[in-house]
Amino acid sequence: MAYVGAVYTIDRFVRTADDVIDELQRRRRASDRPKPCHKRVWAEMTQVLEGETINGKELLFTVLANEAGERDQGGQKPTVCLLDGEKALWEWYREYLPEAVGILDLFHVLERLWLAAYCFHAEGSKAAAGFVEKRLRMLLEGKVGALIGGLRQMRTKHGLTGNKAKTLTSVIGYLENNREHMRYDAYLAAGYPIGSGVAEGACRHYVKDRMERSGMRWTLEGAQAMLHLRTTYLNGDWDEFIEHRIQAEQNALYGEMAA
Questions:
Q1: Structure confidence at residue 74 (pLDDT)
Q2: Of 9, 40, 76, 173, which is most buried with the most CB atoms under 10 A?
Q3: What are the φ/ψ torsions at residue 104 (nearest 5 degrees)?
Q4: pLDDT digits (tens, 9 = 90+) for 14-40
Q5: pLDDT tens, residue by residue, 102-118
Q6: Of the candidates 19, 47, 30, 13, which has an alpha carbon nearest to the alpha carbon of residue 225?
Q7: What average pLDDT score do residues 208-237 get?
Q8: What are phi and psi of 7, to 5 degrees?
């Protein structure tokens, strides 16, 4: 697995719950939303080098923390860290970006709300869509506790059993475990981003579009080498890299003559 991250700078964008719901229903971004600036992306994989295991998550967070620090050496800008619900990622966040505002990506939460909706309503139905919209509004208005309590009551009232009971219990557990990073009302009022679209987009065009073409097979070493090349190109460092490579090759071949 490749762990993908991105660092970018963006203006604040204050919104309301209605603004977010309207944007999601229309499935297009708000026209006045600020664009990410100076974006840089990275992808790292866990691998063994000279007998030592290098954790891809930790390596990625090391790079992200260094880049974030370089952008705000005076400590004047708020830093936001958007992640999904994987427990290990939050552990590395607390170690490498403890001062950042940790936010659970809203779209990962939405996936869980849809799973909960299908425990009570047919897939693709208006009732399911209404179920999700109502609970999304609760999240965006800071009513996470009420949402969790309501789902518990519905689980009991409807007497769910089997896979549906298991699914709903999993959704409730996900919300409980990530509750401290779901203060969306405060995030919206502060103008913070609440969706990790930049990183999700990078997963697609940075990794999948190049690495998962038909018939491709990769060794771990080869895959990481290709990802590093992609990193160099996408971050605008290609010309500098080529110049460095030429100089290194000349030094290796000709030594003092190259100098």
A1: 81
A2: 40
A3: -75, 125
A4: 999 999 998 888 766 667 889 889 999
A5: 999 999 999 999 999 99
A6: 47
A7: 92
A8: -120, 135
Residue 211: partners with Cβ closer than 8 Å, 6 or more residues away:
2, 218, 223, 226, 227
- Structure tokens belonging to residue 7: 């660092």
Separation CA 130–CA 132 (nearest Å): 5
* H or E stretch at 5: strand 2-9
Q: Are 52 and 58 in contact (CB under 8 A)?
A: no
Sign of CA dihedral 136, 199, 84, 113: positive
* Whether the model pTM is above 0.90: no
Domain boundaries, the chain: 2-211
Please, are residues 227 and 43 in contact by the beta-carbon 8 Å criterion?
A: yes
Q: Are the C-beta atoms of 7 and 64 separated by less than 8 Å?
A: yes
pLDDT-derived band at 72 (thresholds 50, 70, 90) equals confident
Termini Cα distance of the chain: 41
Please give the structure tokens belonging to residue 29. 């971004």
